[in-house]
What does this fold into?
Amino acid sequence: MPAEILFPVISDFIDPADQKGNAMAKSHYSFRKRQKELAKKKKKEEKRQRKLENKTVETDETEKDQTPSTEDR
It folds into this structure.
């Protein structure tokens, strides 16, 4: 399809206020919201990783503590 046919159709969908520059600026609410969600997700994942690391350290320490006590018997 030639471009001459497409451009008049596309221009029908463009808001005339946007073409003149008289339209109000749009807020970036969805962008800010997405960034906030990503930050929360990252923080939650970091917290989960810290808990897993702490749990593995605790289990290693308890295993070390239990081995000498079984040898004493």
About this structure: Helices lie at 3-13, 16-20, 29-72. The CA atoms of residues 2 and 8 lie 11 Å apart.
